[in-house]
Amino acid sequence: MPLTALPSDLAERLDQFIRSLKKGELKGSYDVAHQTLLFLRRLISQSRWSTAKDLRERIRLEGKKLISTQPSESAIGNMVRRVLKIIWEEYVSIISGQGVDSGDTQESLQKMLRADVHVDDFSKPCPNLKGRVIESINELLSELEGSADSIATQALEHIHSSEVIMTMGKSRTVEAFLLNAGKSRKFQVIVVESAPSYQGQELAVNLAKKGNIETTVITDSAIYSPSWLDLKAVCGSHALALAAKHYSVPLIVCAPLFKLSPQFLCSEDQEAFNKFESPQNVVDFYESDIHAKVHIHNPVFDYVPPELVTLYISNIGGNAPSYVYRLLRELYHPDDYEI
Amino acid sequence: MSEAGKTFTPGAGGKGKKQDVASPEQPSQKKKLSKAEKRKLRMEKQKEQKPDANQPDAPSVKQPEKKSDVPQKSKAELKAERRAKQEAERAAKLAQKGEMPSTNQGSTGGQTKPRSEIIKKERPRVSDDIKVDDPSVLKRRAKKLEKQQVPQRIDSEKKVNLFNHLDQFERSISLTKELSFSSGGIHPAIVMLGLQYAEGYICGANSSFLNQCRPKSVSMGNAIKYVKMQISNIPQDKSDTEAKSLLCESIDSYIKKKIYLADDAISNILIGNKKIKDKDVIMIYGCSSLIVRILCDAHEKEEIKFRVIVVDSRPKQEGKEAAKRLIRCGVKCSYVLINSVFYMMPEVTKVLLGAHALLANGYIMSRVGSSLIAMVAKSQNVPVLVCCETYKFSERAQTDSFVTNELGDPDDLVHSNSSVDYLRNWRSIKNLTVLNLVYDVFPPELVSMVVTELGMIPCTSVPVVLRVRNVEG
């Protein structure tokens, strides 16, 4: 059954959302994830669909549009996948009359043999699906909202007193993490300023002002030197990670689960995920002699290979990088990796 | 100028010689000394180049007068100026007494030997410049400065804990305010040089003659050492003017041999050995005059077709200058900030780095950020070549960037070109400090090879080169 057009107000909202994504009005992946989720909830409640299959088709379609507007923002795709998974779960639990354990989506030999909850037909009508899906999405929303907090509460498990911690740029999660630890422990933070965005400076000012944490700002180039006395480096770029590895300093990455993406990337795939910004931040346009003849690159993202990371701290606890595949299985349905 | 001479010579002995040393007719000589003065002047930055440099001279000539002039000698630190003075005195003494008939040219060989022996005997001393955290050292220095009519810089009150042992100065404080022109203690040329250093206008170890005397730099230490030696080697029977011209000559030859010709040689070695090939993508960092020159040579003389990625970092952004020079030569360039190094590294075939100094343990001291690039290159299996003249080799050994380093002006980090200036009032925030390191030190494992005018050597050969140099004098 072909999908009908979206109701006009919904289509308008979609356009608006896409526009703001394109303009980069939403700062940070948290906002993006949050807005995506709100939009998907609206889509489910307001668009016309009769079966789970229709709904999944609809979400896939609109999700694709959203993802293609900002491919480097993996949070959009992640949220779309989470919603698809929610629909699948709710549908299965309604059809089979029992709850599906969220950790149990994987095909195992044993399960295939037993074949008790094997659902691949989504076309059965299912009356109370909408309510349950929306309820689950609300749960997901509250998980999203609390993710930074739940990561921050783990801070005391990882930071001891008079520790020296190096971090880079500005991340809401890391800021909350450090501020929370700073409430009860005395430690020192070295913040890399991360030119050309200088978010590191912002973080440093926040930490020193709000948290009374002893903070030092250094330039990007100075990462290597002080690393050997860092006991921990939190959330960083590849270079920082390498420096940490070089000095055998543990590298901790703080990331809420909504940032976990099922994409397979390695350092050679830079083009697949990176984003470039205006060279103006690197060299001012008034220095036109440089601009005229020199290629100036200003990539936004960096890739940190898993072997350099000691620990991921997500809102459900700390995990080794090797365990991430398992988290992925729990969060997303394998069928939805490719939308 | 003679005034400058006076400051140099509180002691009775060897006045004549001393005055030549500082006399105005010898520009290069003046500069050399100025460098010495300079260091004192700036105090701040000087790190000790070679702790042993003063000592070998001092004990080698035992003169009663000297002891009385230089009461501070017993303390660990002797300033370059004092060293020069001693040398001059000694030279004069020798001339007067004629105690060494072979003093003239022959003395070169004679002196070097005992010197190296003395080096062995000397107990290594720690330079005061890295003991700023010790109040007694500060006091001593202040006294000395006062005596020498050198204006003192005021130490910044906001310092990073770890670096309490280093000087932190701020540019905002005028160095010359206190210095009246009639003070006569310091020659104007010296003052000028000092200010240039202080403002960081001259950077890079050899973009001009003066740069070899960059304060607190290793190369400067070596240059001073050389001049000192030349002074002591001046034939004693020559008149002042002759001696002066001789000195100038030797200094000129040092500059020529150690800097210009060395650069030529390095450039030839690199290109001659086909280390730069067609289709190469070469990453460079900052603006090393030597490296830019090699690349320009390779492009213009050999017509090798390669591409350059200039990596730059705040706050100085010297890479812009490198990029400008390269595009003027017609070399294809890309320009990135240091945070994109990892992004660029996959396409890079070679990394060329300049060095500030090569330390005796094979570690490399270079502009802050070089180590990062070397590390990323190593992780991606890209060869790292360090180009360095041998005059930058140092007898010091160091394994981290903390013990001896230079702290740049933290305010340099504040003027960012971003619209939001987060750090504008950083001084008013109690817990916030800003650290602007100038050098870093990285281990030889990160470097594939060092290209010097003597050929391509591994980092670990530094002590060998140093030894050979000592023997040669």
Automatic annotation (TrEMBL), chain A:
Compartments, as annotated in UniProt: Cytoplasm, Cytosol
As given in the record, the signal peptide range reads none
Major subcellular location class: cytoplasm
Q: Which UniProt keywords apply?
A: Cytoplasm, Initiation factor, Protein biosynthesis
Q: Name one GO cellular component term.
A: cytosol
Q: Which domain of life is it from?
A: Eukaryota
> Which InterPro entries does the UniProt entry name for this protein?
eIF2B_beta_subunit, IF-2B-related, IF_2B-like_C, NagB/RpiA_transferase-like
Q: Name one Pfam family in it.
A: IF-2B
From the UniProt record, which GO molecular function terms apply?
A: guanyl-nucleotide exchange factor activity; translation initiation factor activity
Cite the PANTHER family for this sequence. TRANSLATION INITIATION FACTOR EIF-2B SUBUNIT BETA
Q: How does it assemble?
A: Component of the translation initiation factor 2B (eIF2B) complex which is a heterodecamer of two sets of five different subunits: alpha, beta, gamma, delta and epsilon. Subunits alpha, beta and delta comprise a regulatory subcomplex and subunits epsilon and gamma comprise a catalytic subcomplex. Within the complex, the hexameric regulatory complex resides at the center, with the two heterodimeric catalytic subcomplexes bound on opposite sides.
Report the family membership.
Belongs to the eIF-2B alpha/beta/delta subunits family.
What is the designated name of this protein?
Translation initiation factor eIF2B subunit beta
State the organism named in the record: Stichopus japonicus (Sea cucumber)
TrEMBL record, chain B:
Give its localization.
Cytoplasm, Cytosol
Compositional bias of kind Polar residues: 101-113
Which cellular component terms (GO) are annotated to the entry?
cytosol
Record's keyword annotation contains Transferase: no
Q: Where is this region: Disordered?
A: 1-126
What is a GO molecular function of this protein? translation initiation factor activity
Keyword Protein biosynthesis on entry: yes
**Entries under Gene3D superfamilies matching the protein:** Translation initiation factor eif-2b, domain 2
Extent of Basic residues compositional bias:
29-42
List, as start-end ranges, the regions of compositional bias called Basic and acidic residues. Answer: 63-92, 114-126
Q: Which terms are listed as keywords in the entry?
A: Cytoplasm, Initiation factor, Protein biosynthesis
Subunit-structure text: Component of the translation initiation factor 2B (eIF2B) complex which is a heterodecamer of two sets of five different subunits: alpha, beta, gamma, delta and epsilon. Subunits alpha, beta and delta comprise a regulatory subcomplex and subunits epsilon and gamma comprise a catalytic subcomplex. Within the complex, the hexameric regulatory complex resides at the center, with the two heterodimeric catalytic subcomplexes bound on opposite sides.
Q: Which family does it belong to?
A: Belongs to the eIF-2B alpha/beta/delta subunits family.
Output this protein's name: Translation initiation factor eIF2B subunit delta
- Look up and give the organism this protein is from: Stichopus japonicus (Sea cucumber)
